[in-house]
Amino acid sequence: MHRITVRPACVRFTRDIKLYGHFIEHFHRQIYGGIYDPGNPLSDADGFREDVLSAMRQIHVPVLRWPGGCFVSAYHWQKAVGPTRTPFFDKAWRVEDPATFGTHEYIKLCRKLGCEPYICTNAGTGTAEEMSDWLEYCNLESEGEFARMRIQNGAREPFGVRYWSIGNENYGAWEIGAKEAGEWSRLVTESAKMMRRVDPSIELSAAALADVEWNVALLRRAGPYLRWISIHKYWNLMAEENDFADYGQVLAYTNDLETDIMRVRGLLTAFGLEKRIRIACDEWNLRGWHHPRVLSVEQGIAKEEYLSPRDLNDRNEDYTMADAVFSACYLNAINRNADIVGMACFAPAVNTRGCIFTWQDGIVLRSTYHVFDLYTNHLGDEILDTWETGAESMDVTGKDGHREQVGTLDVLATRDSRDGHVALAAVNKHPCEMQTLEICMDSMSGKAYRVLTVNGDSVDAFNDINHTGVMLTEGAWTMPDGPAFAVQLAPHSVNVIEFET
Ligand code: AHR
After folding, report:
1. H or E stretch including 58?
2. Closest ligand 1 atom, CA of 70?
3. What is residue 154's predicted lDDT score, i.e. its pLDDT?
4. 289 lines ligand 1 (CB under 6 A)
5. Tens of pLDDT along 469-478?
6. In testing the pocket of ligand 1, which one of 23, 169, 291, 310 has its CB within 8 Å of the most ligand atoms?
7. Atom 5 in ligand 1: which residue has the minimum CA distance?
8. How does pLDDT run across 384-434, given as a tens digit for each residue?
């Protein structure tokens, strides 16, 4: 039997709440027709969908990254500020952007959500000057033309944007304005230099990946200016083919949750920067987005080739307990690395592969939404030291046909620094078998516990308009029958076992 020994007094470290961040891009229906839907009766006076705002507040979104993503690498922020907006052609996604959602609307959204803004700048076609001008616009009180422009555009007070990233995936051939490692480190250095002369209080990140050459060049020259290094990860890549990995294939991906983090951690440590620079996993999702014939050399000609297929991202039946189980395992993994991973942004928050789907008359909370609801409302901020024995595994076959062993349970122990209550996240990955977890915690005997569970009646359970297949349910408070007790975990379930304070 899988046994975990928990010692509430042994706190490894405290996680940053920004691990539960989100990302929103000018892509398909994430913004226009998604969270920003002026004219919809469900939207407020500023055009934001109040049902979406309410759902995002429930999961306490701590940070929201914007405006991209690939979109940002040809984005010029000045086109979307001020009383007259000029629609522009978005060369990343080959659509016209109405420019009605820009910096002011984004900041207003973050204020409504009570979250930190996190702006990703254009390091594709953009320059150090354009990036630092954007920072002047947002953060300077009234000095210079850009701060004055902001005031003229209706915002007397600076926006105070603390988090900024230089570029998005500029290492990738698919990215507009892609760079070689050497030119990237110089551009980041010169951009960071200018930005920090505008506002030295900002925390800067730069686009990176788990690649030695890229990161050595970046860190050697730009390291002194950075507080973060950004990496992205999608496992089930579907840009060209909307080919979903099934539950068993998704389980194989759970053996690859920390690979990139460990590689970047190793490099930061080699540079002696592991106490100064943290990792921002600022785009992650089990499911890569579907957008055929646009990130490739061959572009689609007819809209049916490259535009209409994007609607396939909106099929709610595709987001099942596989997505919930995987996402919970990934959140466990970044909590276990919270000494160096300080931010993670689910990509995206709304529509596409997001946790919230919008339609004309309402929203659908997909399976992943309930995992964020469970984790942000019931897990603690302190990550506890634990000892596990008797772990069991199962045989799975990955999407590429390889067979491997995967652990059946993924467990994380936390403690709330405010009131000391202990809560364990426990994911039963097995598709059809109940798993027993024996919990040993001598210092908590006499405290009642309850099990909160995100689950459905099968691995393929999903939520849709007028269909509820996945829910968060609360178990009854129970007194353990001693310092060691067993909890039964349902197949394909995400659970939090929380103890009374
Ligand atoms: O598939 C969407 C893209 O994924 C984002 O725009 C980019 O940042 C990442 O490659």
Report:
1. helix 50-58
2. 6
3. 98
4. yes
5. 999 999 999 9
6. 169
7. 69
8. 999 999 999 999 999 999 999 999 999 999 999 999 999 999 999 999 999
Q: Whose CA is nearest to atom 8 of ligand 1?
A: 69
CB atoms within 10 A of CB 455: 24
Could you report the per-residue pLDDT of 334-371, keeping only the tens digit for each?
999 999 999 999 999 999 999 999 999 999 999 999 99
* Domains of the chain and any CATH numbers: 2-10+381-499 (2.60.40.1180), 16-242+257-316+331-378 (3.20.20.80)
Q: How far apart are the first and last CA of the chain?
A: 27
pTM listed for this prediction? 0.98
Pocket test for ligand 1, best of 283, 296, 346 (most atoms within 8 A of CB): 283
Average pLDDT over the chain, rounded to an integer: 97
What separation in Å is there between the alpha carbon of 169 and the centre of ligand 1?
8
Hey, which of 22, 23, 24, 25 would you mutate to test ligand 1's pocket, going by the most ligand atoms within 8 Å of its Cβ? 25
- HEC string of 197-260? HHCCCCEEEEECCCCHHHHHHHHHHHHHHCCEEEEEEEEECCCCCCCCCCHHHHHHHCCCCCHH
- Give me the amino acid identity at 370: H
Is the distance from the beta carbon of residue 480 to the nearest atom of ligand 1 less than 6 Å?
Answer: no
Angstrom distance (rounded) from CA 245 to CA 370 = 21
Ligand 1 contact, 24 CB (< 6 A):
no
